[in-house]
Design goal:
seven-stranded mixed sheet, binds S-adenosylmethionine, EC 2.1.1.-, SAM_O-MeTrfase, transferase, Cation-dep_OMT
């Protein structure tokens, strides 16, 4: 899988100064380099633009790499709402989105995402595209909130669902979240309100369409 991803990134990745700067800013601020892969980012841009999404909700901002990729798929009237636990991460992401020209389209809610999601439900907010990329233990809770906040036909995309391939390899040393991801993938695959596929790009993405 590592080799295939390396190959995909080597053929399809082209120099992107904006995203390179985001990666540098993450390192300079002593944060972990755990942004989505270049190909995953490209796929996010394409999915947002192909679906014609207008209001995107992201869970897990880090330094704004995936945020920029999502925002690139929106037209100028589209919005990105991003949930992030760490105030300083959200500030960096906001700075990076502003530098990339999306400052007026993005807003950040800081604190535990479950609290922000509850707030969005009480505010009767609705979204047509979701990207889940935060603490893996809460993926199932996040999925349930996203379904509640979704317009009919919305897309929900979740990252890291292959847990570096360990969900499929019994002989591999399991990751901390391997078991969560196995259970999560089964939930997504069998959910009565979702039509889903898993794509082995980056660390694995599920893409689901919500039926309401
Ligand atoms: N999506 C980002 C990107 O590709 O640019 C990477 C996100 S990183 C893998 C996960 C992020 O989720 C971190 O910034 C972390 O602080 C945030 N996070 C972890 N637990 C959280 C929680 N309970 N609520 C909100 N955000 C959380």
């Amino acid at each position: 899988m590592k080799q295939i991803n390396k190959y995909i990134d080597s053929v399809f990745y082209s120099q992107d100064d904006t995203l390179e700067e985001v990666l540098n800013s993450i390192k300079e601020n002593g944060m972990r380099s755990i942004s989505v892969s270049p190909s995953t980012g490209k796929l996010l841009t394409l999915l947002v633009s192909m679906s014609g999404a207008k209001n995107v909700l992201e869970i897990g901002a880090l330094g704004g790499y995936s945020g920029i990729c999502l925002a690139r798929g929106l037209d100028r009237s589209g919005t990105l709402t991003s949930l992030e636990l760490m105030e300083s991460y959200a500030e960096l992401a906001n700075t990076n989105l502003s530098k990339a020209g999306f400052g007026s389209q993005v807003s950040y809610l800081t604190g535990p995402a479950l609290q922000s999601l509850e707030q969005l439900v009480s505010d009767n907010r609705q979204f047509d595209f979701f990207f889940i990329d935060a603490d893996k233990e809460n993926y199932e809770n996040y999925l349930n909130y996203c379904i509640r906040l979704a317009e009919n036909g919305a897309l929900i995309v979740c990252d890291n669902v292959l847990a570096r391939g360990t969900v499929a390899d019994e002989s591999a040393e399991p990751e901390r979240h391997t078991e969560f991801m196995k259970k999560f993938n089964e939930t997504v695959a069998n959910h009565p309100q979702l039509e889903s596929v898993l794509i082995p790009i980056g660390d694995g993405l599920t893409i689901s369409k919500v039926k309401k």
